[in-house]
Design brief:
With about 400 residues, the protein is an alpha/beta fold. The chain has helices at about 30-40, 70-75, 95-105, 120, 160-175, 195-205, 240-245, 295-305, 305-325, 340-350, 360-375, 380-390, and strands spanning about 5-15, 40-45, 80-85, 110-115, 115, 125-130, 135-140, 155, 175-180, 210-215, 220-225, 225-230, 235, 250-260, 265-275, 280-285. The strands form three sheets. Strands 1, 2, 3, 4, 13, 14, 15 and 16 form an eight-stranded mixed β-sheet that branches. The protein has a six-stranded mixed β-sheet with strand order 6-7-9-10-12-11. Strands 5-8 form a two-stranded antiparallel sheet.
Length: about 400
C-alpha cells in the first residue's frame, strides 16, 4: 500500500526561439534537474506552445510552436509527464494548432489537461494515485479562442462556474485538490493584491493547493490555513527576446509536493538559465522564492512601480524587431528560418538607439494608435495600483 504520492510541477516550457532545438540536446539540462523530477510519481509541465506543423497564425509575432519530436524528449526524460495546455500560447496557431497538439499527445500516450475539443474536455480533471488520490484541474486567463460547447479551446476564467463544480466533484472522490492556474502580471517578482485575492478565492472554492505560472519570473508562496498558493514558478525550458529584455527571467523553480492521506510537504529546486554557457543549471538559492507574507505591502508597491519600465522595455524591443528585417530574426514566424542571438543583434544595431532612427511621422502615428487602443482596452486595475504604489510606497 502506497503511503504517499509525489507530484512535480514546473514553470513554462516551449521549444521555440532560443530553445527551439534544445530537445535534441538533453544535456542542456543539468542532471540534478532530471533527478529531482524523476523522483516524483508524476510531473505536471506547463507546455506553452502548440505542437503543430501548421503555417497559419493570426499573430504577427510571439507565435510559439514546437515540433512533435519535442514530445518524445519530454516522455523520455521526465517521469509520467502530464502537460498543462491551459495557457495563453496554446492557441497561437488557432484551433487547428490545438487539435494537432491533442493528436500528437494521444499518439505518444501523454496526458494533457486544461484544453480540449470542447468545454467539457477542456475543464475535465484528472486523478493521480491509487491509495492516495490527488485531483488536478487547470485553467488560464487569456481571452483567446477559449473552449465552447462545440469548439476546441482552453479552460478559462470565464468557465468559473464549471470549474467550481469540478472542484466540488473532486472533493468527494479525491484526498487532495490542486488547481493549476496560468495568469498574473508578467515580469514582476511579487503578485499584485488583485492576483493574490483571485487565487485565494480558488482556495475558497475548495482547492487545497494552487500552483501558478505565466509571469516568466519567480514569485513567492504563502500558506492560507492548511492550504497553499505558489504564485509563479517562472521559466523552465523557455527563452525569448522578450524574456531577455526583462529582469529576472533567467530564474525558475521546480516544486515537488509530497502527499499523504492527511498532510503534505513540498521541496523545491532553484533553476538558473545560464545564457552565456547555454545551460540550465541548479542555483543554490533564489531571493524571489519566499513567503510573500513577510513585508508584502512594501514589496508589491515596489514591484508595481516597475510596470512602467517593463512596458518601456517591451515597447523598445517591439520597435527594434520591426525596424530591423525579420530575415535576421526568429520571432516564431514559420516563414522566418534565420536566427541571430539577441546579444549579437544588440551589437549589430545598437539597441539603445532604436528610438532615434524612427522618424517623427511614424512616432506620431503610433502615439495616436496607442492612445486609441488604451481607450478601448485599458487595464485600469493595474493603472490604479501602480498610481497608488507610486504615491504611498514606503
Amino acid at each position: 500500500m502506497s503511503k504517499n504520492i509525489a507530484i512535480g510541477f514546473t514553470g513554462d516550457m516551449a521549444f521555440s526561439e532560443y530553445t527551439k532545438e534544445k530537445y535534441k540536446t538533453p544535456k542542456f539540462v543539468d542532471k540534478k534537474i532530471y533527478d529531482f523530477l524523476n523522483k516524483c510519481d508524476y510531473n505536471i509541465i506547463n507546455f506553452e506552445s502548440p505542437v503543430t506543423d501548421s503555417l497559419k497564425t493570426d499573430k504577427a509575432s510571439l507565435s510559439h510552436k514546437s515540433k512533435a519530436d519535442a514530445l518524445n524528449y519530454v516522455k523520455d526524460n521526465f517521469k509520467n509527464p502530464i502537460l498543462n495546455l491551459a495557457n495563453n500560447h496554446m492557441m497561437d496557431f488557432g484551433r487547428k494548432g490545438l487539435i494537432d497538439t491533442l493528436n500528437n499527445l494521444d499518439e505518444r500516450k501523454i496526458k494533457g489537461i486544461g484544453a480540449g475539443k470542447n468545454i467539457d474536455e477542456a475543464t475535465q480533471y484528472i486523478i493521480l494515485g491509487d491509495d492516495i488520490k490527488v485531483g488536478i484541474v487547470a485553467f488560464q486567463y487569456k481571452n483567446n479562442l477559449i473552449a465552447t460547447k462545440n469548439e476546441a479551446g482552453t479552460a478559462h476564467d470565464r468557465h468559473k462556474k464549471t470549474i467550481k463544480n469540478k472542484i466540488k466533484e473532486l472533493k468527494k472522490i479525491a484526498d487532495w485538490v490542486v488547481v493549476v492556474y496560468h495568469g498574473g502580471d508578467e515580469f514582476i517578482n511579487v503578485p499584485m493584491p488583485y492576483t493574490r485575492r483571485k487565487l485565494k478565492k480558488i482556495l475558497k472554492w475548495g482547492a487545497n493547493i494552487v500552483v501558478a505560472h505565466h509571469p516568466h519570473t519567480v514569485q513567492g508562496y504563502e500558506k492560507v490555513g492548511n492550504k497553499m498558493i505558489f504564485y509563479s514558478l517562472g521559466n523552465f525550458i523557455f527563452d525569448t527576446d522578450y524574456q531577455r529584455a526583462q529582469r529576472g527571467t533567467e530564474y525558475g523553480e521546480l516544486i515537488r509536493i509530497n502527499f499523504t492521506k492527511d498532510s503534505y510537504t513540498f521541496d523545491n529546486l532553484n533553476l538558473y538559465c545560464d545564457r552565456k554557457k547555454d545551460k540550465l543549471v541548479v542555483e543554490k538559492s533564489c531571493e524571489y522564492f519566499q513567503n510573500i507574507n513577510v513585508g508584502y505591502g512594501k514589496k508589491w508597491k515596489q514591484e508595481a512601480k516597475r510596470f512602467k519600465q517593463i512596458k518601456a522595455n517591451k515597447k523598445e524591443l517591439a520597435r527594434y524587431r520591426k525596424l530591423y528585417s525579420v530575415k535576421e530574426l526568429y520571432i516564431g514566424k514559420t516563414t522566418c528560418d534565420n536566427y541571430m542571438a539577441f546579444d549579437k543583434l544588440v551589437e549589430k544595431h545598437s539597441f539603445d538607439g532604436v528610438n532615434n532612427v524612427v522618424n517623427f511621422q511614424n512616432r506620431l502615428l503610433r502615439r495616436f494608435k496607442r492612445i486609441f487602443r488604451r481607450l478601448i482596452k485599458a487595464d485600469y486595475k493595474k493603472h490604479f495600483y501602480t498610481l497608488y504604489a507610486s504615491i504611498f510606497s514606503r
